[in-house]
């Protein structure tokens, strides 16, 4: 699958823009702050329904406008599909597929995109929420139904936590809060689905993660990704990641562990007014050389792990999708890599049906990825040239 044409109206710093893209490598070149990443962000929006840089939609709308329009024509063999998203400064976004209105949540069914950006360093160095977000976005891309499961879990979590806070304020303790059991059942049901899906994902990522890391770094540092589960007794949100749960997702009684952990933490939950057990308290522990990446890995190792996670994601999507390869986007990556890793990454990326690269300096991008160059300045497309 490739993006053949991208059109923007009032998106970020673009009043209007039209860009034709081809199969193989495409490079957006321009000085920092000119709008290169905005083009990449617009393409990725169809797959993730959000930005990799900000959590809200409003910053994606050009100053002075109430909404932005992003259109992309995608091609897969003889098939063409036109996707359109209206990103609103306030309120719900809107979407169309081939001119027909659809729910915005339907867009990722048509677009498989994997984007790596400098912000991804937070996946390996940031707090647990960054790693949960990475895993959950990949789960949704591979199985769109997980979007509803995760949304339902968040809704139940908020309602259960509100009940705990109310009970704490009123001084209610222990068995007096009988209504909590209803929310426990819902939390366990939905949370178990999330935990099982995440554990299975970590298992499936294992081989492509190791392959991608070795290919990028030129060394086998034994990269690992393993979930630390609050239902198993750990609590990464409180800084306790000493107990990594390695139970097989297919055979473990996750629901039983979940209920037992809720019972064990009931007193603490009522005291703090928080839900202390569930996938919202879990962490994806990343290791190289047997040590946690966070706190032990060098800058180069951290970059290699973050990049390998995205490339491993692309491999899983490639294996899953009837649409062919995902679109691979490498945003401002090559400036951070030494010459050897640049060439290694270029070799891996060149295997994908379409690769989109952004760079401030064209020479930073290996020649093999400079088949088509698009020059960008101050929210304008200056020229497009074939190498």
UniProtKB/TrEMBL annotation:
Classification via NCBIfam families: recf (TIGR00611)
Amino acids binding ATP: 30-37
Domain of life: Bacteria
Annotated PROSITE patterns: RECF_2
SUPFAM superfamilies documented for this protein: P-loop containing nucleoside triphosphate hydrolases
InterPro entries: DNA-binding_RecF, DNA-binding_RecF_CS, P-loop_NTPase, RecF/RecN/SMC_N, RecF_2
Entry-linked Pfam families: SMC_N
Name of the protein in its database record: DNA replication and repair protein RecF
Gene behind the chain: recF
Subcellular location: Cytoplasm
Keywords: ATP-binding, Cytoplasm, DNA damage, DNA repair, DNA replication, DNA-binding, Nucleotide-binding, SOS response
Family, as annotated: Belongs to the RecF family.
Residue ranges occupied by any RecF/RecN/SMC N-terminal domain in the UniProt entry: 3-371
Function description: The RecF protein is involved in DNA metabolism; it is required for DNA replication and normal SOS inducibility. RecF binds preferentially to single-stranded, linear DNA. It also seems to bind ATP.
